[in-house]
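Rotation project, supervised by the postdoc (A.L.). Task for the rotation student: set up a whole-complex structure prediction and record inputs and outputs verbatim in this book. Inputs entered:
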Amino acid sequence: MNNETSIDELDARLIALLDAEPRIGVLECSRRLGVARGTVQARLDKLVARGVVRSFGPQVDPAALGYPVMAFVTLELRQAVGHDAVAKRLALIPEVLEAHTVTGTGDLLCRIVARTNAELQGVIDRVLSSEGVLRAETVIALAEQIQHRTLPLVSEAAGNL
Amino acid sequence: MNNETSIDELDARLIALLDAEPRIGVLECSRRLGVARGTVQARLDKLVARGVVRSFGPQVDPAALGYPVMAFVTLELRQAVGHDAVAKRLALIPEVLEAHTVTGTGDLLCRIVARTNAELQGVIDRVLSSEGVLRAETVIALAEQIQHRTLPLVSEAAGNL
DNA sequence: GGCGATCTGTGCAATATGCGCAGCCGTGAT
DNA sequence: ATCACGGCTGCGCATATTGCACAGATCGCC
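Outputs recorded:
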């Protein structure tokens, strides 16, 4: 990725406005930002087409959904199986929210949620019983100190033109 | 959290529909789901009010934004300072996307992005120079095997009534 | 049975949307 | 200097949606 895929100040202001007021509509956006309606629509389409904005879908909070326990689980995989095969199997477990291959002492870092600590054990057992998973090292997330956010990064990216 | 905060099948279908077609509008939602318009609006309001849906804002992909390097950094903190104070300082660094206090050998697990590996070093240096941060252990995320998703969890939660 | 919560269908005025169009401007290539 | 292109602008139009309100029906609980 290089600067061609980055954003300018208007993109950043648009993203920030939609973050603050997601249901605002294109016309009101254009009023607020001081640009033409077509410009807003074109900018949005471009941000989506380039993958900068992945989705405007609902961001669901697992804790409020009934899954307050969160853990980061680092898996060691059997070399012969491969990351992709294991990931496909893990993706069938709803409580596995995301997974990244990583450097370091483990191979795959997963974010896993559960309703209770006891249930987390069950989920991890399911993970461990997936073919290709050798061991799991678990840390429980106790509190969210910085909630996931990308707006500061958006401003940063727009400021470096 | 108990079952009172959970969702039913209609909530789940609504969330899934909005995930698939975020700009669909309330009226079209009601058509698709086979319920009254007011019902959709009321359900949405409730999902938001209860925190199940945190936001409908744009979900930004750091990699497409120009930050393809991602790392999970576990920090050891000086006991006297406290998590909150450190988190406040880390929140001032745009590249720090989220942070959770965790069990295990570290105190705070952060998700950090950067444009390059070299720049990541710079970000980590900034993190390390924050008062209260003693050391940092970094693993680089090599590939996203399961992209962050909550829809399967939503279906799971709705199915357990 | 009574009550409250929820869902339903309807109506209305105001507003927005998707789409298209012509014109203008800045930029880069020739 | 000229031309082509991309992006932005303002405008128009037919259609659709929205926010809000309302009355009535249904359901679950006490």
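Student's summary: Residues 25-28, 37, 41 of chain B lie near DNA strand D (CB under 10 Å from a C1').
Supervisor addendum: Chain B has two domains: 7-58, 69-141.
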